[in-house]
Every structure is written in structure tokens, then in C-alpha cells.
Design goal:
The complex is a heterotrimer of chains A (352), B (143) and C (295). By secondary structure, chain A is an alpha+beta fold. Chain A has two domains: 211 residues, no CATH class; 110 residues, Rieske [2Fe-2S] iron-sulphur domain (Rieske Iron-sulfur Protein, 3-layer Sandwich), CATH 2.102.10.10. In chain A, the strands form three sheets. In chain A, strands 2, 3, 4, 8 and 11 form a five-stranded antiparallel beta sheet that branches. In chain A, strands 1-10-9 form a three-stranded antiparallel beta sheet, with no helix packed on it. Chain A has a three-stranded antiparallel beta sheet with strand order 5-6-7, with no helix packed on it. In chain A, helix 2 runs parallel beside helix 11 and helix 7 crosses helix 8. The longest helix of chain A is centred in the middle third of the chain and has 30 residues. Chain A is elongated. Chain B is 19% helix and 43% strand. Chain B has 143 residues and is an alpha+beta fold. Chain B contains one helix and nine strands, in the order H-E-E-E-E-E-E-E-E-E. Chain C has 295 residues and is of the alpha+beta class. Helices cover 29% and strands 31% of the residues of chain C. Chain C is built from nine helices and eleven strands. Chain C starts with 20 loop residues before the first helix and ends in a 13-residue tail after the last helix. The chains are: A alpha+beta (352), B alpha+beta (143), C alpha+beta (295). Chains B and C meet through strand 1, strand 5 and strand 6 of B and strand 3, strand 4, strand 5, strand 7 and strand 8 of C.
């Protein structure tokens, strides 16, 4: 969290993350280049650079695309999500080296502009086998570029989290473009089935994880919490004992999810959607009296949904009440940052 | 994530789970295959010969042959791998250097050797790159 | 999965200095696993690549060769290498190409302008970078490397080119193969063929670099045919739509010293390549899709 924008707010975990990332990049590049030079001494510098960056960027893209669903399937993977943007920007830089150098190699020093050549050297756009695969890679690179340049919180704030997230979901289209870029390009030239098997395994892994994660979330939305409003508009949520101390119960309403937190003998309800990247606040904890988002640690005071000063993020709040040992919430959202009195948990209520 | 994006996620991956494997399989299925010419490159076989001497080297095999009933020798040169030179000449050295031919692509080459060769006990075959003035390989032939 | 993963009790906050113990231990193992996978993948991807050709481009190295320069048909220099013991001159014909993705015509025109003479059939000393492989050679020439006095220093033409050029007809044939640009294929790029290189080959051939039909033969050897029209003129523009893909080309094969020419009918080639750009013909999912040049 920051009250003003800085290029990168470094902390120990980010440094560890980036150190591991750079180590992996070096490990891959050194191995790929050195073994190539030993086994294929005839390889040219240009081909070595193009292939090292191509394979590395595609490998990083697989890792990036695995982190999201893994984190949704189990919170232990959340630390991988924390600094995923650095991974994404790094992947773009590697892919950009591949793309720019390929354009120079295959299209520069000719009788037309390299970018014209990129799209018009091969004009078989209606043919699957002869399709101009380089155009697919270029379009994917444009998507990665848009994502990389808007990756900073400045753009997240200015574009709004919804627009920003939607834009960044373009990565799924980019993955499809890159997959076909490879399948209709180098796979037509290479003869080893091992490369096809690896690509296929990567595809199956990503499909499996994303389908499993999206189905899990979709089921939660479809469960349609027993939405039977009482006469006063409140709906029954759960028994008090179902909410652990400093944690929340998430209520899936047709419009959006609400997180009802139990803390210090109080119950407060806020929107489940973090203002930063729309992380699920209800999967977070109360730390130092603040609701803490599991994705990037953004914090909100539970009784008014506002970030503690000097931070300015605010989420909607809801009325919550406790009748006996049953928790109720009113689905009407108050404007973001509106203070609502928490429901008081009687001190003789023992948490089980 | 907000609900519209979760829904978008859900349906997008429902579509991707069909489209991406379909694209993957189609892309494999339509790979154009290069055909092979049924006509092998012709090799000049020069009469009935017997192998007199065989000398292998990393780039080529040297086979000294004698044509049945005819005096003189024939050199069969099997170029096993591409030579990394712009041009390659084959020289025979006895008391002097004589150019006997040129090598190009991988394949088998036959060279008639000068008839005067029968007067010598030993000869040397040298492959040379005339552009860079470099010897590629040399082999001794006992006669 | 639940047995492998730690219980979801711990809570990770990125800006706190320490990650919770169980989470940290689990992630250390994940990171080690990713490292091992990355290393294995790097090795597999290297080991299972297709082998690279031994064709070679002497980038940045200039070599001077002396020979007869031909500016008709395909620009080339015919380099006499010596006389064999029968007294016959042995030649190596090197195709000439320009800098980048251009043929040699422009460079030769500039050389003719600087020398003030026609260079066709003239014995010259030409300086450039050699490109060679599988018994074939090319020379990349740049006008700046060939000042007039040095170019003509080799002397006047000792023989007329008409006397030295031997063309031998080898009949009409239908050849399956791939149209590649000679410059990239013979050493400038690796690979200089196939789908990954297709756009580059199109750009090179469009720029005047001689197109070659590369024919893989049954005995695992490769034959190369310089593609020209029946009137010995270049068909570079007409052939562009079928570059870098499996094709069958019908034509008359002529042996010109150490090169084979494939003379194709320009009109037939045009009719075939124009069909390629029509949508119905392009929606061909059939992997046996080939292009036959009809009579």
C-alpha cells in the first residue's frame, strides 16, 4: 500500500522474489546457450538469441498463467501471486527481445518496411497450414506490451480495477496467439515429437488449472446463498460459531460477495472486493485491527471499510446484526467508507 | 475479482478448453510435408572394378580401384559430409602435383587417375580449398 | 493434493519481512522444483532441436576471387580453379548477391557505372563475403569494396563468355521440393528454409536474390535447381506466393557448369501462384496440398 506512487516499493519479500526470478532466467539462458554451443556449434548468434528468448518467454508465460488458478485453488500459492507483475514485465521484456530481433532478422534490410514485410511477406491469411504465424506473435507481443506498460498501480488506479483487470485478462488471448504462433511456425519445421508433447502438456496443465479454478469460483457464485430476506431486509448468513476469530464468512449474493468479519467481539460486513486489484477480502485476516487483503496486503478498518490514514482506499460497508447465535447481514451496500456500527458479540459467547 | 470478471473467466476457459486443443490438433494435422524426389542422383559407375585399397577419413572415404582388364587406377571418393569450404579440388601427388577433379555436394565421385601412376610405389591424394589456399585432408595411397 | 499442501491456516502478507514457516518451507520446495523443471526443459529443448546445416557465411570477412562475371540470367562469377591432367579447366560458379535482402543487379550496375564498361563476360577480381555449403558458393558484393581499378586489375577477358559457357539439357521433369532464397539457405541464416524462414525468403527473393528449388532425394542427398523462366529471365516476383512451402515444379532442367537450372513456364507459374491467393484454394486443410505447375 502506498499513499503516493513510486516506481517500485521494495520490501524483503519482493527482493527474494526477484532474486529467484533473475536466478531462474540466468539458469535457463546459460544452460540453453552453452549446451547449444556444445551440441550445435553451427548455430548462428541470431538464431541462438531468437530461440533462447522465445523458449524462455513461453516458459515464463506458462508459470505466470499457472499462478492465478493455483492461488485460487489453495492460499499457499498466494506468495507467488504477490509479485507476479514483476514476472509479467520480465516475460514481456524477454518476449520483446525475441520479437524485435526476429523482425530485424527476417524483415529488415529488404525492399519494404520491416513492419509491412511482417504482415505482407506471407499473405496466406486464409490458409491454416500456410498461415503467417509471425503476425500472431506480433499481436501477442502488443497485448503483452499493453499489460507491461499499464502494470503499475498508477494505471490500476486511473483505469479503475475493473478496466485494468479486464485489460490484463487479454493475457489469455495472448497465450492462444502464442500457442498458434508456435504451432503454425517452428513446429512445422522441427521434426521431434518431444517438442509437440511438451507444448501439449503445457496446454493441458493450463487448461486443467484454469477450468478447475474458474469452476470452483463459479460454483461459489451459483450456490446462491439461502437468500431469504426477513421482513426487515436482513438475510440469514450463518451461525456465529462458523466464523473464526479475525476471519470472515463470505456471502455470495446475486450482485456481489460480502465478507462478514469477526474480531474483538464484533462483527462487521464489507464488500468482498478489494479496491486495489479486486482481491477477495473475505479470504483475508484481521491484522492489527485491520482487514488485510490476501493478495497484496491492502488494509481496511472493518467498521467503516476505509484504509487507515494516510491511505485512501475505501470499500462499501453493510449492516450486520446478531440474533442469538445467528449472524444476519443487510444486502444494501452503503457508500464506500461509510461507518456502520458493528454487531456486538456477547462476551459470554464462547468460540468453538 | 468481481462477479462479471469471474463469469468472464468461467466462460472464456470453457471456450478455450475446446478451441485451444482443437487449434493444436488442427495445426499438427495440416503440417505440409515435403516430398522426396523418387529419382536418386545419378552416380557415374565406370566399368567393373576391384578394390585395391581403402582409406577412411572423417570427411570422406578413399577407395582405390582397378578396372578389370585395363591398366591404371580409378579413385572412388565417398564424400560423407558437407565440406565447409567454398570449393574443393582433388590433387594427386607423385613426383609432381596433378589436379584430378573437383568435389561438390555429398556423394560418391569417381576419378580416372593418370596412367603414369603405375610407375610409382606410392601417391598422395590431397583435398584442397583453392579459394582459401588450405589443405582439407591428405591421404597416402600405397600402389 | 490436500496431503501435499500445508493446511490453509497461515496467512502471508508480502510486505512483512518473514513468510509464515510452513508456507515458506512449502514454497522453497516449489521453487527448487521449478528450478529443476527449468533446467530439464532447457536441456530437452536444445537436444531435440533439428540439426543445423554446416552452410557458412563469412560475415565481415572479405575474399577476392578472380573469374568471369556474368550479368545475364543469374548474376554470377565463374572462377577458374585450375586445369586437370587432361588439360580441362575446372570452374566454380559463384552466384552473386547484394547486401541485405537484395540481389546483385544493383551493385553490378553501380560497378559498371564506376568502371565505365560492361562487365558481362569480363574477367574481374571481385571482392566480397563468401557464402557456401554443400558444394555451392555465393559471393555477397558491395560496390564500395570493389573500386574500379582493382576490379579490372585482373586483366582483359582472355576468352569470350559464349565460348566458355556450356549448357546441357537434361530433359523435362516434375520436381517436388521447396523454393528457398539462395543467400539465406547457403549459410546466412540457420535455418534458411521452412515455415519459420518463409517471410524472410519472400523478402530476399522479392529483392532479387536467386530462388532455388531444393529437392530432397531418395538417397538422402539434396539437389538444387536455380529457377528461371524458359527465356532464361528471372521469375522472382511470380514465384513469391509459393516460396517456403512444399511445391512441385515442372520444368526443363539445364545443366550450366556446376549448377542445374530449372526453366519453368512463366504463364503456368503465374496461373498457379495466382490461385494460391484465392480464398477457396487457401482454406485447404489437406496436408497433401501441393502445387503442380500444369503444362
Amino acid at each position: 500500500m502506498s499513499a503516493s506512487y513510486q516506481a517500485i516499493l521494495w520490501n524483503r519479500q519482493k527482493k527474494i522474489y526477484d532474486t529467484i526470478l533473475v536466478s531462474f532466467l540466468l539458469l535457463y539462458a546459460i544452460l540453453f546457450v552453452s549446451v547449444n554451443l556444445i551440441i550445435h556449434p553451427e548455430i548462428t548468434f541470431e538464431t541462438l538469441l531468437i530461440r533462447t528468448t522465445a523458449t524462455l518467454a513461453f516458459l515464463l508465460l506458462h508459470i505466470i498463467l499457472m499462478i492465478g488458478p493455483l492461488a485460487r485453488l489453495h492460499p499457499v500459492f498466494l506468495p507467488l501471486l504477490y509479485n507476479r507483475r514483476h514476472l509479467g514485465v520480465t516475460m514481456f521484456c524477454v518476449a520483446a527481445i525475441h520479437g524485435i530481433f526476429s523482425i530485424i532478422q527476417f524483415h529488415a534490410l529488404g525492399n519494404v518496411h520491416p513492419l509491412v514485410s511482417l504482415f505482407l511477406s506471407n499473405t496466406h491469411y486464409g490458409s491454416l497450414p500456410y498461415f503467417p504465424f509471425q503476425a500472431l506473435g506480433f499481436l501477442a507481443l502488443i497485448i503483452f506490451m499493453l499489460m507491461a506498460v499499464t502494470s503499475h498501480d498508477f494505471w490500476l488506479e486511473n483505469l479503475s480495477p475493473k478496466v485494468w483487470k479486464t485489460l490484463h485478462m487479454g493475457v489469455y488471448l495472448a497465450y492462444a496467439l502464442v500457442l498458434m504462433h508456435v504451432m503454425l511456425g517452428v513446429i512445422q519445421y522441427e521434426t521431434s515429437p518431444v517438442l509437440v508433447v511438451l507444448l501439449g502438456l503445457g496446454l493441458l496443465l493450463l487448461l486443467g488449472l484454469h477450468v478447475a479454478a474458474s469452476r470452483k469460483e463459479h460454483q461459489k457464485d451459483q450456490e446462491g446463498f439461502a437468500y431469504n430476506p426477513e421482513a426487515d431486509g436482513f438475510i440469514r448468513v450463518c451461525a456465529l460459531d462458523e466464523i473464526a476469530e479475525n476471519r470472515a464468512k463470505i456471502v455470495s449474493l446475486p450482485e456481489e460477495r460480502i465478507a462478514i468479519f469477526r474480531y474483538a467481539n464484533h462483527l462487521s460486513a464489507v464488500s468482498n472486493v478489494c479496491k486495489h486489484q479486486n482481491g477477495p477480502l473475505g479470504e483475508g485476516r484481521i491484522i492489527d485491527g485491520c482487514i488485510t487483503c490476501p493478495w497484496h496486503g491492502y488494509q481496511y478498518l472493518p467498521h467503516n471499510g476505509s484504509s487507515p490514514p494516510p491511505f485512501k482506499e475505501k470499500v462499501a460497508t453493510y449492516d450486520v446484526k446478531l440474533v442469538g447465535r445467528t449472524v444476519y447481514v443487510h444486502p444494501k451496500a452503503y457508500p464506500e467508507g461509510t461507518e456502520r456500527p458493528p454487531a456486538v458479540v456477547p462476551t459470554n459467547t464462547i468460540m468453538i | 475479482m468481481i462477479k462479471p470478471l469471474r463469469t468472464y473467466h468461467f466462460y472464456l476457459w470453457r471456450i478455450w478448453v475446446v478451441l485451444l486443443p482443437l487449434g493444436f490438433i488442427l495445426a499438427l494435422w495440416v503440417i505440409p510435408r515435403n516430398q522426396t524426389s523418387v529419382h536418386p542422383s545419378s552416380v557415374a559407375i565406370k566399368g567393373e572394378t576391384t578394390l585395391v585399397y581403402h582409406a577412411p577419413s572423417p570427411c570422406c572415404d578413399f577407395n582405390l580401384r582397378q578396372t578389370t582388364g585395363v591398366p591404371g587406377y580409378q579413385l572412388e571418393l565417398v564424400l560423407k559430409k558437407q565440406l565447409k569450404v567454398p570449393a574443393c579440388l582433388v590433387y594427386l601427388r607423385t613426383d609432381k602435383d596433378q589436379l584430378i577433379g573437383q568435389l561438390g555436394q555429398v556423394g560418391t565421385y569417381y576419378f580416372d587417375l593418370p596412367s603414369a601412376l603405375q610407375h610409382f610405389d606410392e601417391a598422395t591424394i590431397t583435398l584442397q580449398d583453392p579459394i582459401h589456399q588450405q589443405v582439407i585432408t591428405t591421404i597416402q595411397l600405397p600402389l | 493434493m490436500r496431503k501435499i499442501l500445508p493446511p490453509p491456516d497461515e496467512f502471508y502478507v508480502g510486505y512483512l519481512p518473514e513468510a509464515p514457516n510452513t508456507t515458506a518451507t512449502f514454497l522453497k520446495n516449489v521453487v527448487i522444483g521449478i528450478g529443476i523443471v527449468i533446467a530439464i526443459l532447457a536441456l530437452i529443448l536444445v537436444l531435440y532441436q533439428k540439426k543445423f546445416s554446416t552452410n557458412h557465411f563469412e560475415f565481415g570477412i572479405n575474399t577476392t576471387v578472380q573469374g568471369y562475371l556474368y550479368t545475364d540470367q543469374v548474376p554470377r562469377i565463374r572462377v577458374p580453379l585450375g586445369k586437370d591432367f587432361h588439360g580441362q579447366e575446372i570452374y566454380q560458379t559463384m552466384l552473386l548477391v547484394g547486401f541485405g535482402k537484395f540481389g546483385a543487379s544493383e551493385a553490378i550496375a553501380q560497378l559498371e557505372q564506376s568502371t565505365g564498361v560492361s562487365l558481362h563476360g569480363r574477367f574481374v577480381a571481385l571482392t566480397g563475403s563468401l557464402i557456401y555449403g554443400d558444394g555451392k558458393a555465393l559471393l555477397q558484393i558491395i560496390p564500395q569494396d570493389n573500386p574500379a581499378e582493382r576490379l579490372l586489375a585482373a586483366g582483359t577477358s582472355p576468352m569470350g563468355h559464349e565460348e566458355t559457357l556450356v549448357l546441357q539439357s537434361k530433359g523435362e521433369t516434375l520436381l517436388p521440393g521447396e523454393v528457398v532464397d539462395s543467400k539465406c539457405f547457403f549459410g546466412v541464416m540457420k535455418p534458411g528454409e521452412g515455415k519459420p524462414h518463409r517471410s524472410c525468403a519472400v523478402r530476399c527473393i522479392a529483392g532479387g536474390i536467386p530462388p532455388i528449388l531444393k529437392v530432397k532425394q531418395a538417397n538422402n542427398k539434396t539437389a538444387y535447381y536455380l529457377i528461371l523462366a524458359e527465356d532464361y529471365t528471372m521469375v522472382n516476383q511470380e514465384i513469391l506466393p509459393i516460396v517456403g512451402q512444399p511445391v512441385r515444379l515442372k520444368g526443363r532442367v539445364i545443366q550450366m557448369e556446376d549448377w542445374n537450372l530449372l526453366l519453368v513456364n512463366r504463364q503456368s507459374l503465374l496461373s498457379v501462384t495466382s490461385q494460391v491467393n484465392e480464398w477457396p484454394g487457401l482454406l485447404a486443410l489437406d496436408k497433401r496440398f501441393t502445387l503442380c505447375q500444369s503444362e
